[in-house]
Amino acid sequence: MQNDQLTLASARGPSGPRSQRSLPSWVSTTALLMPTYGWLTIAVFLPLLTMFAFSFLSATPMGKAPIVFTFKQYRAFIDQPYLVGIGITSLLIGFWTTLFCAILGFLAAVALVRSTFGKTREMLLILILLPFWTNGLVRVFSWTMVLRENGFLDSLLHMVAPEAGSIGFLYTRYAIVVGLVHGYLPYMILTCYIALSTIDDAIIAAAASLGARWWTILFKILLPLAAPGLISGAVLTFIPVIGSFMEPRILGGRVGVTMGTVIEDQFTQAFNWPLGASLSFTLLAVVLAIFATFSGVLRRGTAL
Amino acid sequence: MTSLGRFYLIAILVFLYTPILVMMAMGFNASLLYELPFSFSTQWYEALWSNTVLLKAGFNSIVIATITAVLATALGTMASVALSRRTFRGKSLLQLMLLPPIAIPWLITGTAMLIFFYWSGIGRGMHALLIGHVALAIPYVVLVVGTGFKTIRADLEEAAMSLGSTPVHAFFSVTLPLLYPSILGAALFAFAVSLDQFVISYFLATPGYTTLPVQIYSSIRKGFTPEINAISTVLLLGSMTVILIFARFAKPGDTSDKR
């Protein structure tokens, strides 16, 4: 007992233990929290602050050139009008990806809740979620083999119709959307599934006994009641998608220029870190605005 | 309805697994250009065996993931004890501060780390990768261990203390053994998060010290060979195994009482 108190006291630092039976609880609470929040400060919060400061520099402070504070990086969308088009492309890719994920994912969650039971449902859920927890890069890469000319999709087609041309659409925006839907669909299914599984079966049974058809049940009961899950799934899909860069690079080729790839280029090719930082912060502002808009829904979603 | 639903679920599974299975199959195809007809060959796995660059990157990935799992689990569990068992001012703010590593796109976090690590002299390389990976894994650990705490009754610990145990002793002899499955699950989860992390690693790796996903990305951009399919298959099967083991320890969505 004596030893334990000494160990605790030594964690408190050089101020030493007072002759008490136990230390005030805030000391141990602080000691428990300090390592985690210290680590997050160095790895996440200070970097974000530094990036914010960098976004006001006139150039990357690496060479001998004089560096001044400026707002010009934030005028990028005015000074370089082609960025507006890229921004719209990114938003459109985000929109279509989220829409497809929402439709496919919501219906899959409905099918899971309404048509499967017990062990089958458990197994299907694990099978659906498994790809989500594997390497996204590798999964995007695997789509190139399906979508390329004379790839898997073309081979399937040629088995049925040997004379048909190629339907491979690698290096198009459609390919990017397919890859991204593949990446985030499991997540959408999970959030919708959690929301749907809390709906009482009796409500649906009641509706059915009163003569409701399946589409009435789907649109008038399941959809409104599962809306929080659907919205949090959509938000948590849209946000990483507008920040993606390796999916557009690998599946889009030359047409795959998005905000993500522009930002990556500023850091790895152009060495214009301040511009990259200001674009990153513009993106972050969009992300925070989305979180703020849906914060109520998200809080309910994550409380589960 | 039931059969339609099941048919739809099977279609979703086909969509999710087709590219993965095609890639795995192509790793065993002799053709360099992924051409059909398929002719079985293990030559790409043999080539992989002598590709020291990929193997070294794979070794680095495993080392980083292991250290990340240990550090993130230790720190995250400590924080989780405080967040689950104590009441103090500013707790909800601290819980909110766990979200940025998960919720902000990795591109933003990664480039921010690159700038800060360069500017502060921390630099890039193995230590920088570790700082980044541990920070990403901590919130997941707090989440998984925190869920574990919800299944353990606080009064067990209080009972031990009222019988004369010190708080520290009570924690280590009562709470920790009950929490052990969650902690092990959290460690596996952190391992998988680190093993699969690409975006942040991409900005923090140096030419001399890369991880497997970063090396795969640069190989893809240089022009792919089926060797990449072989190593990708190994990586996918590896992380699937880790996640399946994780699912056994901390069943997702399991609300059964472990009293």
Kindly list the characteristics that best describe this protein.
heterodimer, A: 304 residues, mainly alpha, 15 helices, B: 259 residues, globular
Describe it for me?
The complex is a heterodimer of chains A (304) and B (259). Chain A is 71% helix and 0% strand. By secondary structure, chain A is mostly helical. In chain A, α4 (82-115) runs antiparallel to α11 and α6 packs parallel to α12 (246-252). The model of chain A is unreliable at 1-20 (pLDDT under 50). Chain B has 259 residues and is mostly helical. Chain B contains twelve helices and no strands. The chains are: A mainly alpha (304), B mainly alpha (259). The interface between A and B is large, with 91 and 87 residues.
Helical amount of chain A: over 70%
Summarize the helix and strand pattern of chain A as letters. Answer: HHHHHHHHHHHHHHH
The computed structural class of chain B is: mainly alpha
Give the count of helical stretches of chain A: 15
Q: What is the number of helices of chain B?
A: 12
Cα-to-Cα separation, first versus last residue of chain A: 39 Å
Global outline of chain B: globular
Task: Report the order of strands and helices of chain B.
Answer: HHHHHHHHHHHH
Gyration radius from CA atoms of chain A, angstroms:
26 Å
> Which strand-content bin applies to the residues of chain A?
under 5%
Write the layout of secondary structure elements.
The complex is a heterodimer of chains A (304) and B (259).
Chain A: H1 2-10, H2 25-54, H3 76-79, H4 82-115, H5 118-129, H6 136-147, H7 152-160, H8 173-196, H9 201-209, H10 214-225, H11 227-242, H12 246-252, H13 259-268, H14 273-293, H15 295-302
Chain B: H1 2-26, H2 43-49, H3 52-85, H4 91-96, H5 100-103, H6 106-120, H7 126-150, H8 154-162, H9 167-196, H10 199-204, H11 212-222, H12 226-249
Helix pairs in contact in B: 1-12, 2-12, 3-7, 3-9, 3-11, 7-9, 8-9, 9-12, 11-12
